[in-house]
Amino acid sequence: MLASGNGNVGFTITAGANTTLRNVSTLNNAGYGLSLGTVSNFDVHNVTSTGNTHGVYIASGTTNRFTGSLQMGGNTSANCLTAGTNPGLVTSTCTSTGTDGSSGYGTNLSTAVLRTGRNLASTFVGSISAPGDESNVSDGGSGLGFGFAEWSQYFDYFNFDNAFRNWGRRDTASSSPLVSTNRGACAAGGICQIYDWSLSKDDMILLNRSGNGTNVNNGSSMTSNGSYSTGDNTFGAGQACPVQTLGDQALESRPFAASSTIYGANLSLRNAFVSEGSTTSCYGGDTNGNGVVDGGETWTYGSACVQRYLAGAIEIYGETFFKTVSTDRAGLEVLGDTTSDTTGLCTVETCNLGAEVAGDNLGDDDGVCEAGEVCYWGDEDGVCEVGEACRVGDDDGLCESGEDCFYAPNFGPYQGHFPTTGSTPILKDAANQCTWSSNGGTISGVQMYGYPKNGR
Protein backbone atom coordinates (compact mmCIF):
# COMPACT_ATOMS: atom_id res chain seq x y z
CA MET A 1 0.00 0.00 0.00
CA LEU A 2 1.23 3.51 -0.85
CA ALA A 3 -0.29 6.84 0.25
CA SER A 4 1.41 10.05 -0.84
CA GLY A 5 0.75 13.75 -1.29
CA ASN A 6 -2.43 13.91 0.79
CA GLY A 7 -3.49 17.20 2.34
CA ASN A 8 -3.90 15.48 5.69
CA VAL A 9 -3.25 11.89 6.87
CA GLY A 10 -1.72 9.35 4.50
CA PHE A 11 -3.35 6.08 5.62
CA THR A 12 -5.56 5.61 8.67
CA ILE A 13 -7.32 2.85 10.58
CA THR A 14 -9.49 4.29 13.36
CA ALA A 15 -9.97 1.07 15.33
CA GLY A 16 -9.36 -2.63 15.00
CA ALA A 17 -7.73 -5.79 16.28
CA ASN A 18 -5.88 -8.86 14.99
CA THR A 19 -4.89 -7.21 11.73
CA THR A 20 -1.86 -7.79 9.51
CA LEU A 21 -0.38 -4.89 7.50
CA ARG A 22 2.53 -5.39 5.12
CA ASN A 23 4.65 -3.19 2.87
CA VAL A 24 3.11 0.13 3.92
CA SER A 25 4.58 3.28 2.34
CA THR A 26 3.33 6.73 3.41
CA LEU A 27 5.19 9.64 1.84
CA ASN A 28 4.92 13.44 1.79
CA ASN A 29 1.56 13.74 3.58
CA ALA A 30 0.60 16.93 5.42
CA GLY A 31 -0.48 14.96 8.52
CA TYR A 32 0.48 11.62 9.98
CA GLY A 33 1.93 9.09 7.55
CA LEU A 34 0.44 5.92 9.05
CA SER A 35 -2.30 6.70 11.59
CA LEU A 36 -3.66 3.94 13.84
CA GLY A 37 -6.41 4.74 16.34
CA THR A 38 -7.52 2.30 19.04
CA VAL A 39 -5.79 -0.85 17.84
CA SER A 40 -4.61 -4.08 19.43
CA ASN A 41 -2.74 -7.17 18.30
CA PHE A 42 -1.72 -5.53 15.02
CA ASP A 43 1.16 -7.08 13.08
CA VAL A 44 2.90 -4.52 10.86
CA HIS A 45 5.76 -5.62 8.61
CA ASN A 46 8.04 -3.35 6.56
CA VAL A 47 6.98 0.29 6.88
CA THR A 48 8.39 3.27 4.99
CA SER A 49 7.25 6.68 6.23
CA THR A 50 9.04 9.82 5.04
CA GLY A 51 8.24 13.51 4.61
CA ASN A 52 5.13 13.56 6.84
CA THR A 53 4.57 15.43 10.13
CA HIS A 54 4.87 12.16 12.08
CA GLY A 55 5.88 8.87 10.48
CA VAL A 56 3.62 6.58 12.56
CA TYR A 57 0.89 7.68 14.97
CA ILE A 58 -0.84 5.28 17.40
CA ALA A 59 -3.57 6.94 19.47
CA SER A 60 -4.14 4.01 21.82
CA GLY A 61 -2.36 0.75 21.12
CA THR A 62 -2.14 -2.57 22.96
CA THR A 63 0.31 -5.41 22.24
CA ASN A 64 0.98 -4.42 18.63
CA ARG A 65 4.12 -5.67 16.90
CA PHE A 66 6.29 -4.15 14.16
CA THR A 67 8.65 -6.50 12.31
CA GLY A 68 11.03 -6.33 9.36
CA SER A 69 12.23 -2.77 8.78
CA LEU A 70 10.95 0.64 9.83
CA GLN A 71 12.30 3.21 7.35
CA MET A 72 12.06 6.86 8.38
CA GLY A 73 13.29 10.21 7.10
CA GLY A 74 12.25 13.85 6.83
CA ASN A 75 9.22 13.65 9.17
CA THR A 76 8.99 17.21 10.46
CA SER A 77 7.72 16.61 14.04
CA ALA A 78 8.81 13.11 15.04
CA ASN A 79 9.14 9.70 13.51
CA CYS A 80 6.73 8.10 16.00
CA LEU A 81 3.95 9.38 18.27
CA THR A 82 2.32 6.65 20.36
CA ALA A 83 0.24 5.97 23.47
CA GLY A 84 -1.18 2.90 25.19
CA THR A 85 0.10 -0.29 26.81
CA ASN A 86 2.86 -1.70 24.64
CA PRO A 87 1.57 0.09 21.52
CA GLY A 88 4.44 -1.38 19.48
CA LEU A 89 6.65 1.71 19.13
CA VAL A 90 8.32 4.12 21.54
CA THR A 91 6.90 7.62 21.27
CA SER A 92 9.12 10.17 19.50
CA THR A 93 12.08 7.83 18.85
CA CYS A 94 10.30 4.63 17.63
CA THR A 95 12.94 2.41 19.24
CA SER A 96 14.36 2.91 22.73
CA THR A 97 17.35 4.84 21.36
CA GLY A 98 16.04 6.12 18.02
CA THR A 99 19.38 5.41 16.36
CA ASP A 100 19.84 3.95 12.91
CA GLY A 101 20.06 0.16 13.03
CA SER A 102 18.49 -0.14 16.50
CA SER A 103 15.79 -2.70 17.24
CA GLY A 104 15.16 -2.47 21.00
CA TYR A 105 11.66 -1.40 22.06
CA GLY A 106 11.66 -1.81 25.84
CA THR A 107 8.57 -3.78 26.89
CA ASN A 108 7.05 -3.57 23.40
CA LEU A 109 6.90 -6.74 21.29
CA SER A 110 8.42 -5.24 18.14
CA THR A 111 11.65 -6.39 16.51
CA ALA A 112 11.79 -4.15 13.41
CA VAL A 113 15.14 -2.60 12.55
CA LEU A 114 14.89 1.19 12.49
CA ARG A 115 16.46 2.97 9.53
CA THR A 116 16.69 6.75 9.72
CA GLY A 117 17.58 9.54 7.30
CA ARG A 118 15.93 7.86 4.33
CA ASN A 119 15.64 10.17 1.30
CA LEU A 120 13.42 8.86 -1.49
CA ALA A 121 14.03 11.66 -4.01
CA SER A 122 15.39 9.18 -6.58
CA THR A 123 13.42 6.11 -5.56
CA PHE A 124 10.44 6.33 -7.93
CA VAL A 125 10.10 6.90 -11.66
CA GLY A 126 8.10 10.02 -10.70
CA SER A 127 6.77 12.54 -13.21
CA ILE A 128 6.62 11.33 -16.78
CA SER A 129 7.47 13.22 -19.94
CA ALA A 130 7.67 12.36 -23.64
CA PRO A 131 6.23 10.17 -25.05
CA GLY A 132 3.72 10.58 -22.22
CA ASP A 133 1.03 8.07 -21.32
CA GLU A 134 -0.45 6.67 -24.50
CA SER A 135 -3.41 5.10 -22.66
CA ASN A 136 -4.61 8.32 -21.05
CA VAL A 137 -6.74 10.59 -23.21
CA SER A 138 -6.17 13.62 -20.95
CA ASP A 139 -2.39 13.52 -21.26
CA GLY A 140 -1.14 16.62 -23.09
CA GLY A 141 -4.47 18.39 -22.74
CA SER A 142 -4.57 22.17 -23.29
CA GLY A 143 -1.37 21.89 -25.30
CA LEU A 144 0.81 21.69 -22.17
CA GLY A 145 2.93 18.80 -23.39
CA PHE A 146 3.41 15.19 -22.47
CA GLY A 147 2.73 14.02 -18.93
CA PHE A 148 0.63 16.91 -17.67
CA ALA A 149 -2.56 18.83 -18.38
CA GLU A 150 -4.87 21.49 -17.03
CA TRP A 151 -7.53 20.01 -14.74
CA SER A 152 -10.94 19.26 -16.25
CA GLN A 153 -14.11 17.74 -14.82
CA TYR A 154 -13.87 15.21 -17.66
CA PHE A 155 -10.39 14.10 -16.72
CA ASP A 156 -9.36 10.52 -17.45
CA TYR A 157 -8.47 9.22 -13.99
CA PHE A 158 -8.55 5.52 -14.81
CA ASN A 159 -6.58 4.63 -17.94
CA PHE A 160 -2.78 4.50 -17.73
CA ASP A 161 0.06 2.57 -19.34
CA ASN A 162 0.64 0.81 -16.02
CA ALA A 163 -1.25 0.35 -12.76
CA PHE A 164 1.22 2.44 -10.72
CA ARG A 165 0.42 5.78 -12.39
CA ASN A 166 -1.99 8.49 -11.31
CA TRP A 167 -2.75 12.16 -11.77
CA GLY A 168 -1.52 14.49 -9.03
CA ARG A 169 -1.01 18.15 -8.33
CA ARG A 170 1.80 19.89 -10.23
CA ASP A 171 3.39 23.01 -8.77
CA THR A 172 5.07 25.32 -11.28
CA ALA A 173 8.34 25.16 -9.34
CA SER A 174 8.72 21.39 -9.13
CA SER A 175 7.51 18.27 -10.90
CA SER A 176 8.47 16.00 -8.00
CA PRO A 177 5.62 14.18 -6.25
CA LEU A 178 7.56 14.36 -2.97
CA VAL A 179 7.56 18.12 -2.32
CA SER A 180 5.07 19.83 0.01
CA THR A 181 3.77 22.18 -2.70
CA ASN A 182 2.47 19.16 -4.64
CA ARG A 183 0.32 17.86 -1.79
CA GLY A 184 -3.44 17.73 -2.13
CA ALA A 185 -5.75 17.07 -5.06
CA CYS A 186 -5.34 18.58 -8.47
CA ALA A 187 -8.44 20.76 -8.79
CA ALA A 188 -10.11 23.40 -10.96
CA GLY A 189 -7.63 25.97 -12.25
CA GLY A 190 -4.66 23.77 -11.45
CA ILE A 191 -2.08 21.92 -13.50
CA CYS A 192 -1.99 18.14 -13.10
CA GLN A 193 0.96 15.79 -13.57
CA ILE A 194 1.06 12.05 -14.24
CA TYR A 195 3.26 10.38 -11.61
CA ASP A 196 4.60 6.85 -11.92
CA TRP A 197 5.06 5.14 -8.54
CA SER A 198 7.01 2.21 -9.95
CA LEU A 199 10.43 1.92 -8.37
CA SER A 200 13.36 3.17 -10.42
CA LYS A 201 15.73 0.44 -11.58
CA ASP A 202 18.54 2.45 -10.00
CA ASP A 203 16.94 2.82 -6.56
CA MET A 204 19.11 1.77 -3.62
CA ILE A 205 16.56 2.07 -0.79
CA LEU A 206 13.31 0.23 -1.49
CA LEU A 207 14.12 -1.86 -4.58
CA ASN A 208 14.94 -5.51 -3.81
CA ARG A 209 15.54 -4.83 -0.13
CA SER A 210 12.43 -6.33 1.46
CA GLY A 211 14.62 -8.75 3.43
CA ASN A 212 16.21 -6.34 5.89
CA GLY A 213 15.75 -2.86 4.43
CA THR A 214 19.44 -2.29 3.74
CA ASN A 215 21.12 -5.13 1.85
CA VAL A 216 20.06 -6.46 -1.52
CA ASN A 217 17.94 -9.58 -1.15
CA ASN A 218 20.11 -12.62 -1.66
CA GLY A 219 19.45 -15.52 -3.96
CA SER A 220 20.98 -16.91 -7.13
CA SER A 221 18.62 -14.87 -9.31
CA MET A 222 19.88 -11.51 -8.04
CA THR A 223 22.70 -9.16 -8.91
CA SER A 224 24.21 -6.53 -6.66
CA ASN A 225 22.15 -3.69 -8.12
CA GLY A 226 18.81 -5.32 -7.41
CA SER A 227 18.03 -6.49 -10.93
CA TYR A 228 17.40 -10.06 -12.00
CA SER A 229 20.56 -11.45 -13.48
CA THR A 230 19.78 -13.82 -16.33
CA GLY A 231 18.54 -13.02 -19.80
CA ASP A 232 17.72 -9.31 -19.62
CA ASN A 233 16.61 -9.34 -15.99
CA THR A 234 14.63 -12.56 -16.35
CA PHE A 235 13.25 -14.19 -13.23
CA GLY A 236 12.23 -17.81 -13.09
CA ALA A 237 12.69 -21.10 -14.81
CA GLY A 238 15.43 -23.23 -13.35
CA GLN A 239 16.67 -20.67 -10.84
CA ALA A 240 16.64 -21.20 -7.10
CA CYS A 241 14.05 -18.99 -5.42
CA PRO A 242 15.39 -16.05 -3.41
CA VAL A 243 16.22 -16.88 0.20
CA GLN A 244 13.51 -14.48 1.41
CA THR A 245 10.79 -16.75 -0.02
CA LEU A 246 11.89 -20.10 1.43
CA GLY A 247 9.91 -22.07 3.97
CA ASP A 248 12.18 -21.20 6.90
CA GLN A 249 11.44 -17.47 6.47
CA ALA A 250 8.00 -17.56 8.07
CA LEU A 251 6.28 -14.88 10.11
CA GLU A 252 3.47 -15.54 12.57
CA SER A 253 0.55 -13.31 13.40
CA ARG A 254 -0.29 -12.08 16.87
CA PRO A 255 -2.52 -14.63 18.68
CA PHE A 256 -6.24 -14.28 18.07
CA ALA A 257 -9.35 -16.06 19.31
CA ALA A 258 -10.93 -18.07 16.53
CA SER A 259 -14.63 -18.73 16.24
CA SER A 260 -17.06 -20.47 13.93
CA THR A 261 -18.30 -17.01 12.91
CA ILE A 262 -14.88 -15.96 11.64
CA TYR A 263 -13.61 -19.34 10.50
CA GLY A 264 -16.61 -21.43 9.56
CA ALA A 265 -17.36 -23.94 6.85
CA ASN A 266 -15.62 -23.67 3.49
CA LEU A 267 -12.72 -21.54 4.66
CA SER A 268 -9.19 -22.85 4.53
CA LEU A 269 -8.09 -23.57 8.09
CA ARG A 270 -4.95 -25.57 7.55
CA ASN A 271 -2.59 -22.69 8.39
CA ALA A 272 -3.80 -21.72 11.86
CA PHE A 273 -1.98 -23.15 14.86
CA VAL A 274 -2.50 -23.25 18.62
CA SER A 275 0.57 -21.12 19.44
CA GLU A 276 3.66 -19.57 17.91
CA GLY A 277 6.02 -22.29 16.69
CA SER A 278 3.45 -25.07 17.09
CA THR A 279 2.49 -27.55 14.37
CA THR A 280 -0.79 -28.43 16.08
CA SER A 281 -3.88 -27.13 14.26
CA CYS A 282 -5.90 -24.52 16.07
CA TYR A 283 -9.06 -26.34 15.07
CA GLY A 284 -10.22 -29.64 16.46
CA GLY A 285 -12.87 -31.94 15.08
CA ASP A 286 -11.77 -31.98 11.43
CA THR A 287 -11.69 -35.76 11.42
CA ASN A 288 -11.01 -36.22 7.71
CA GLY A 289 -8.48 -33.37 7.56
CA ASN A 290 -9.99 -31.65 4.52
CA GLY A 291 -10.04 -28.15 6.06
CA VAL A 292 -13.82 -27.68 6.04
CA VAL A 293 -16.71 -28.50 8.38
CA ASP A 294 -18.43 -31.59 7.00
CA GLY A 295 -21.61 -33.23 8.16
CA GLY A 296 -21.19 -35.00 11.48
CA GLU A 297 -18.12 -32.98 12.48
CA THR A 298 -18.19 -30.76 15.53
CA TRP A 299 -15.35 -28.29 15.54
CA THR A 300 -13.61 -26.63 18.44
CA TYR A 301 -11.82 -23.33 18.10
CA GLY A 302 -8.66 -22.17 19.83
CA SER A 303 -8.43 -19.05 21.97
CA ALA A 304 -4.90 -18.04 20.89
CA CYS A 305 -4.50 -19.05 17.26
CA VAL A 306 -1.73 -17.79 14.99
CA GLN A 307 -1.41 -17.71 11.22
CA ARG A 308 1.94 -18.61 9.66
CA TYR A 309 3.03 -17.09 6.36
CA LEU A 310 6.02 -16.02 4.27
CA ALA A 311 7.20 -12.43 4.67
CA GLY A 312 8.79 -12.30 1.22
CA ALA A 313 5.84 -13.38 -0.90
CA ILE A 314 2.16 -12.65 -1.61
CA GLU A 315 -0.60 -15.16 -2.31
CA ILE A 316 -1.93 -15.19 -5.88
CA TYR A 317 -5.55 -14.20 -5.39
CA GLY A 318 -8.65 -15.91 -6.81
CA GLU A 319 -6.98 -19.03 -8.18
CA THR A 320 -8.96 -22.14 -9.00
CA PHE A 321 -8.18 -25.52 -10.55
CA PHE A 322 -10.21 -28.45 -11.86
CA LYS A 323 -9.59 -31.63 -9.95
CA THR A 324 -9.26 -34.51 -12.41
CA VAL A 325 -7.74 -37.27 -10.25
CA SER A 326 -7.80 -37.93 -6.53
CA THR A 327 -4.05 -37.31 -6.22
CA ASP A 328 -4.38 -33.68 -7.39
CA ARG A 329 -3.46 -30.99 -4.86
CA ALA A 330 -5.70 -30.21 -1.90
CA GLY A 331 -8.14 -27.33 -1.99
CA LEU A 332 -11.68 -26.26 -1.23
CA GLU A 333 -14.62 -26.70 -3.58
CA VAL A 334 -15.76 -23.52 -5.31
CA LEU A 335 -19.32 -23.03 -4.11
CA GLY A 336 -22.19 -21.71 -6.20
CA ASP A 337 -20.63 -22.40 -9.61
CA THR A 338 -23.16 -23.57 -12.16
CA THR A 339 -23.42 -25.01 -15.64
CA SER A 340 -26.24 -25.52 -18.12
CA ASP A 341 -27.11 -28.97 -19.53
CA THR A 342 -28.91 -28.34 -22.78
CA THR A 343 -28.36 -31.78 -24.29
CA GLY A 344 -29.84 -34.09 -21.73
CA LEU A 345 -26.69 -36.23 -22.05
CA CYS A 346 -24.82 -34.71 -19.12
CA THR A 347 -25.15 -36.85 -16.02
CA VAL A 348 -23.69 -36.73 -12.54
CA GLU A 349 -21.24 -39.44 -13.59
CA THR A 350 -19.99 -37.76 -16.78
CA CYS A 351 -20.18 -34.08 -15.86
CA ASN A 352 -20.35 -34.11 -12.09
CA LEU A 353 -23.56 -32.10 -12.10
CA GLY A 354 -25.11 -31.49 -8.72
CA ALA A 355 -28.62 -30.39 -7.86
CA GLU A 356 -30.75 -28.13 -10.02
CA VAL A 357 -30.59 -24.44 -9.21
CA ALA A 358 -34.07 -23.70 -7.92
CA GLY A 359 -36.05 -20.49 -8.44
CA ASP A 360 -34.37 -19.39 -11.69
CA ASN A 361 -37.49 -20.03 -13.82
CA LEU A 362 -35.47 -22.31 -16.10
CA GLY A 363 -36.67 -25.69 -14.84
CA ASP A 364 -39.24 -27.51 -12.81
CA ASP A 365 -37.56 -26.77 -9.46
CA ASP A 366 -37.64 -30.40 -8.37
CA GLY A 367 -33.96 -30.23 -7.40
CA VAL A 368 -32.95 -32.84 -10.00
CA CYS A 369 -30.58 -31.74 -12.75
CA GLU A 370 -32.38 -32.37 -16.04
CA ALA A 371 -32.04 -31.33 -19.69
CA GLY A 372 -32.32 -27.58 -20.26
CA GLU A 373 -31.81 -26.66 -16.61
CA VAL A 374 -29.06 -24.78 -14.83
CA CYS A 375 -27.37 -26.97 -12.25
CA TYR A 376 -24.66 -26.67 -9.64
CA TRP A 377 -21.27 -27.96 -10.75
CA GLY A 378 -20.48 -30.32 -7.91
CA ASP A 379 -22.24 -31.38 -4.76
CA GLU A 380 -21.74 -28.10 -2.85
CA ASP A 381 -20.33 -29.78 0.25
CA GLY A 382 -17.18 -27.65 0.23
CA VAL A 383 -14.87 -30.64 -0.17
CA CYS A 384 -12.62 -30.62 -3.25
CA GLU A 385 -13.46 -33.80 -5.14
CA VAL A 386 -12.72 -35.22 -8.58
CA GLY A 387 -14.65 -33.38 -11.29
CA GLU A 388 -15.10 -30.16 -9.33
CA ALA A 389 -13.62 -26.68 -9.54
CA CYS A 390 -11.60 -25.96 -6.41
CA ARG A 391 -9.84 -23.02 -4.80
CA VAL A 392 -6.07 -23.15 -4.38
CA GLY A 393 -5.80 -20.94 -1.30
CA ASP A 394 -7.85 -18.91 1.15
CA ASP A 395 -7.45 -15.57 -0.70
CA ASP A 396 -6.28 -13.59 2.33
CA GLY A 397 -3.15 -12.37 0.52
CA LEU A 398 -0.76 -14.12 2.91
CA CYS A 399 1.48 -16.76 1.36
CA GLU A 400 0.82 -19.91 3.39
CA SER A 401 1.52 -23.61 3.02
CA GLY A 402 0.01 -25.23 -0.06
CA GLU A 403 -0.62 -21.97 -1.92
CA ASP A 404 0.59 -20.38 -5.16
CA CYS A 405 2.44 -17.12 -4.46
CA PHE A 406 4.61 -14.49 -6.08
CA TYR A 407 7.85 -13.01 -4.84
CA ALA A 408 7.69 -9.60 -3.13
CA PRO A 409 11.24 -8.18 -3.41
CA ASN A 410 10.40 -4.53 -2.69
CA PHE A 411 8.97 -2.16 -0.11
CA GLY A 412 5.55 -0.79 -1.06
CA PRO A 413 3.00 -2.06 -3.60
CA TYR A 414 5.23 -2.29 -6.69
CA GLN A 415 6.73 -5.80 -6.89
CA GLY A 416 7.88 -5.87 -10.50
CA HIS A 417 6.23 -5.86 -13.91
CA PHE A 418 5.99 -7.59 -17.25
CA PRO A 419 8.00 -6.34 -20.24
CA THR A 420 6.00 -4.64 -22.97
CA THR A 421 5.04 -7.33 -25.47
CA GLY A 422 2.36 -7.95 -28.02
CA SER A 423 0.87 -10.83 -26.06
CA THR A 424 -1.01 -10.90 -22.76
CA PRO A 425 1.45 -11.94 -20.05
CA ILE A 426 0.57 -14.51 -17.38
CA LEU A 427 2.25 -14.43 -13.99
CA LYS A 428 1.61 -18.09 -13.26
CA ASP A 429 3.72 -19.39 -16.10
CA ALA A 430 6.63 -21.85 -16.02
CA ALA A 431 8.91 -19.12 -17.36
CA ASN A 432 8.19 -17.05 -14.23
CA GLN A 433 8.58 -19.87 -11.70
CA CYS A 434 11.62 -20.45 -9.55
CA THR A 435 12.64 -23.67 -7.77
CA TRP A 436 11.19 -23.41 -4.27
CA SER A 437 12.19 -25.25 -1.12
CA SER A 438 10.82 -25.40 2.41
CA ASN A 439 14.48 -25.37 3.52
CA GLY A 440 13.57 -27.28 6.66
CA GLY A 441 11.07 -24.61 7.71
CA THR A 442 7.45 -24.55 8.76
CA ILE A 443 5.99 -23.52 5.38
CA SER A 444 5.59 -26.28 2.78
CA GLY A 445 4.02 -27.04 -0.59
CA VAL A 446 4.35 -23.56 -2.10
CA GLN A 447 4.60 -22.82 -5.81
CA MET A 448 6.59 -19.59 -6.22
CA TYR A 449 6.44 -17.19 -9.18
CA GLY A 450 7.82 -13.72 -9.82
CA TYR A 451 7.51 -10.80 -12.21
CA PRO A 452 10.20 -10.96 -14.90
CA LYS A 453 11.21 -7.31 -14.53
CA ASN A 454 11.94 -5.36 -11.35
CA GLY A 455 12.50 -1.60 -11.56
CA ARG A 456 11.73 0.68 -14.52
How would you describe the overall organization of this protein?
This protein is mainly β. The protein folds into four domains: 2-115, no CATH class; 124-199, no CATH class; 201-249 and 395-456, no CATH class; 257-304, no CATH class. The protein is built from one helix and 27 strands. It has one helix spanning 348-351; strands at residues 2-4, 11-17, 20-27, 34-40, 43-50, 54-62, 65-73, 78-85, 113-115, 124-127, 148-150, 165-169, 191-199, 250-252, 272-273, 283-284, 300-301, 306-315, 320-322, 332-333, 338-341, 353-356, 373-377, 389-391, 398-399, 404-407, 447-449. The strands form seven sheets. Strands 14, 15, 18, 25, 26 and 27 form a six-stranded mixed beta sheet that branches. It has a five-stranded parallel beta sheet with strand order 1-3-5-7-9, with no helix packed on it. The longest helix is centred in the last third of the chain and has 4 residues, at 348-351. The chain is globular, with a radius of gyration of 25 Å. 44% of the residues are buried. The model is unreliable at 220-233 and 261-268 (pLDDT under 50).
Terminal residue distance: 19 Å
Point out poorly predicted stretches: 220-233, 261-268
Q: How helical, in percent, are the residues?
A: under 10%
Helix/strand/pairing class, anyone? mainly beta
Domain count: the total is: 4
Shape: globular
Overall strand count:
27
Strand content: 25-35%
Order of helices and strands: EEEEEEEEEEEEEEEEEEEEEHEEEEEE
Number of helix segments? 1
How would you sum up the major sheet?
A: 6 strands, mixed
Cα-atom Rg, whole angstroms?
25 Å
The average pLDDT is: 84
